[in-house]
Design goal:
The complex is a heterodimer. Chain A is built from 5 helices and no strands. By secondary structure, chain A is mostly helical. The longest helix of chain A has 30 residues. By secondary structure, chain B is mainly α. Classes of the chains: A mainly alpha, B mainly alpha. Chains A and B meet through helix 2, helix 3, helix 4 and helix 5 of A and helix 1, helix 2, helix 3, helix 4 and helix 5 of B.
């Protein structure tokens, strides 16, 4: 959200370089990149698949135009991006609603950080995303 | 209040996408997985298969839900990214109105496609 009190001075540069940022901050960057990629693909997908309204010849022509090894790789990348974005999105929604991060604790030395609580969830969802991406990859390779 | 409602809708749309796009990916893009759902994966984009789905009310309804949820989720996400770049009030208005118009136009187009497809599906093809 835009804020007058705390303007985003780094702009888009702030996505990629953050000094001592943790693992979760880079998941945030990847979440945005995959989100924008999926949106771009989806907008094109609407138009390509709409050719079915024009009948079988138009459909075949459209499918022929987006076939071949390059598009197969692109299609797999879309699948992998979806796997990451979906699983990481579930993680973000869980954390935002206070799930799987434990109850609030007293700030007693030595101070515990929320990273210790959130990191296992981040690692777990990345493993799940990796397994889904691999599973999809095997399916793609088996078919094509 | 308004932003909170929009954000909640963003999360809700994400949940819908998770279910329906997951199903769509399984049927259309993951051949072996699609076989398990009774749709031959390597034939998913053949005209016969497309025509069969186009005449199904279930697929038409899920298609419209998926298009609406994905457009909202994606364009609202894009709006948040753009607003983080601190546009002035006038540019912010352009972003809000522009993305809303684009979203509504694409939703109308996608819905029309889903509704018109059954007619085209009766055409015989290879």
């Amino acid at each position: 959200m835009a804020s007058r009190a705390h303007p985003n001075r780094l702009g888009i540069r702030g996505w990629v370089g953050g000094g001592r940022w943790g693992f979760e901050r880079y998941l945030y960057t990847l979440h945005r990149i995959t989100g924008l990629g999926l949106l771009a693909y989806f907008l094109m997908h609407i138009f390509v698949t709409s050719t079915r309204v024009l009948g079988p010849a138009s459909w075949k022509q459209a499918m022929d135009a987006v076939s071949g090894p390059l598009f197969a790789v692109g299609e797999y990348l879309v699948f992998a991006a979806f796997a990451f974005h979906a699983v990481n999105g579930v993680r973000l929604a869980l954390i935002e609603h206070g799930f799987l991060i434990g109850p609030p604790i007293e700030p007693i030395y030595p101070y515990a950080t929320s990273v210790g609580r959130q990191r296992p969830l981040a690692v777990a969802v990345m493993i799940v995303a990796g397994v889904i991406a691999l599973w999809g990859g095997l399916d793609f390779l088996t078919l094509r | 209040m308004r932003d909170r409602t929009l954000w909640t809708a963003h999360l809700g749309a994400g949940g819908l996408i998770l279910v329906f796009l997951g199903l769509h990916m399984a049927i259309m893009h993951l051949g072996l997985t699609g076989d398990g759902l009774g749709v031959p994966g390597d034939k998913a984009i053949d005209w016969a298969s497309v025509a069969l789905r186009a005449q199904s009310v279930f697929f038409a309804v899920t298609y419209v839900i998926l298009v609406g949820a994905t457009l909202y989720h994606g364009l609202y996400g894009l709006r948040n990214i753009l607003l983080e770049l601190n546009p002035g009030p006038a540019l912010r208005k352009v972003i809000d109105v522009g993305l809303s118009v684009v979203g509504l136009a694409l939703f109308a187009f996608g819905t029309w496609t889903a509704l018109a497809a059954p007619g085209a599906a009766t055409t015989v093809g290879g």
